[in-house]
Amino acid sequence: MIDDVKIKIIAGHGGRGAVAFNKTKMNLGPAGANGGRGGSIYFEGVSNIDALNQFHFKKRAEAENGENGKTQFNDGKSGKDLIVKVPVGTVVTDLNTGQSVEIIAIGEKLLLARGGRGGKGNLNFRSSTNQSPTEFGPGQPGEKRDLRLELKLIADIGLIGLPNVGKSSLLNTLTNAKSRVANYPFTTLNPSLGVYYELILADIPGLIEGASAGKGLGIKFLRHVERTKTLFHLISSESQDPVKDYKIIRNELGAYNKELLDKQEYVFLCKSDLVDKTELKKKLGQLKKAKIIAVPISIIDDESMEKVKEILRKIIKQKYQN
Prior knowledge:
Number of strands: 14
Low-confidence stretches: 182-186
Helix content: 10-25%
Strand content: 15-25%
Structural class: alpha/beta
Shape: rod-shaped
Number of helices: 5
Mean pLDDT: 88
């Protein structure tokens, strides 16, 4: 999935005005028509988080040019507007001015490059002193912009944690998102989204120590956390030091953006079925001693999954109260 790309957009050029005269009688005057307006370029928000993949090979988007003016008062057609579909949560930055705009809603449409105005035909230059003008207006060029498109997922809940802690499995269980899962350590290469009733859940790819400094895939993943409202922080029950694992992720969040530490957070000790009760109790105690209250869960334990759903229902209620 492409979530950060630089592209060039070029709106359509306006068509040239025509120089023409009435075909039957020269003294009836000029009949050159106007050129058509060039097509403009709009960006529209969609729910498909893979929408930026359209720029994997082609990093250029051009709208249609306006037609040149014709004879006998027949104006050239305007060029078709180009509507570029981008994921909701895309930040569009003009690389020349530094100005940014954000697309935050499905169906939201922004004008990014205006098409050039069509040139006037010689009909428009007729005057009392010039009955047979040969002047015409060239079409204006369309606007050009060099842009950076950066996707920052907008989700109600972001699932965070080190690789292989169970984020994808939890997302699949709750939403049937069908993210890739495995029983060996690896980090998901792309974020995945799922919907639980009114809530959008995002599986944020596994962070590692040093991510905020660019280690691994670094800030490619961290920026997706910025738009999530609540964090589900997952720690594996198989971890040798759950407190250390928790602090690694918190340190990376804070190093990237301290405001991330203020988000509402729920901590889960996942894969509780893979350790015995004594070991699980010990690790919960270690976390509690560090003032970290964690809920032990397993996707194969209906009772523990009901605890997760209770939290989700609470978040849904908060969403509608705000």
